[in-house]
Amino acid sequence: MTPMKTIFLSYWRAFVDFLYPPVCKACGRPLAAGERTLCTDCRVHLPYTHYEDWDGNPTARAFYGRVPLQRAASVLFFTADGRVQSLLHALKYKHQSELGLYIGALMGRRLGRSPLYAGVDYIVPVPLHPAKLKKRGYNQAALLGQGMASAWPTGGGGHGAPAPKPELLTDLLLKRRFNESQTRKNRAERWDNVQAVYELNADAGLRSRVAGKHLLLVDDVMTTGATLESAASALLEGLPDVRLSVVTAATPA
User: Fold this and answer.
1) Are both 88 and 12 inside the same structural domain?
2) How far, CA to CA in Å, does 135 sit from each of 37, 94, 95, 218, 247?
3) In terms of domains, do 161 and 109 share one?
4) Which of 15-29, 110-124, 168-182, 201-215 has the weakest average pLDDT?
5) Range of the domain at 154
6) Which of 38, 58, 81, 221 could form a disulfide with 42 if both were Cys (CB 3.0 to 4.6 A apart)?
7) Cβ neighbours, 10 Å, residue 82
8) Same domain, yes or no, for 173 and 82?
9) For residue 9, what pLDDT is reported?
10) Does one domain contain both 99 and 192?
11) Residue 190 is inside which H or E element, if any?
12) What is the Cα–Cα distance from 239 to 28, expressed in whole angstroms?
């Protein structure tokens, strides 16, 4: 980018910000100079779970006896009408796709520093059905995964030795059957709603590429775990030699 173009873009951004002052995506208050996406108060007070450093955390325990995982964690707590719920609602329903990258970067930095997640090879987002993807325009889980992959530290889970960042794979897992929203369903209804929804990509080269690797399945919210259990089962049934972990952006407080 030329110096003149850089100057022009800087002035253009200042002009747009003057006409439409940016606000915090979590609380709605105007952002101060130098703040981006979240105000300092919301950024400092995000309710982190610290589950990425706790092997037997509640998210992990939710999968005990259901699907064999290496690790499982949720990074943030959400409450009704709280900061995190506002962020996730804007990401999913208000077309603010940049929040997926922002939250994903938070997730990637925290998991990448944890020895429990050292050695993750691939990040696999829970897919959307093509019809829903076309309507929304993006898969929020894929954006989270993209942000994670870009921000993941190269230190190797806190050991200090150089290690490659995990790679994002958006086409390993597919969603072939359209199912109803999970929002207003109880646990049994959620499980019935997601059975046989996901399947592994039939591409032999792709399957060979991930054979024996450590996969990290990513989604936005952990509630009953039905969606993640169904997606994880599809991966493990088609790739019995992989190691599989799960992470979500948030879980109920």
Assistant:
1) no
2) 25, 12, 11, 21, 25
3) yes
4) 15-29
5) 47-252
6) 38
7) 16
8) yes
9) 56
10) yes
11) helix 187-194
12) 44
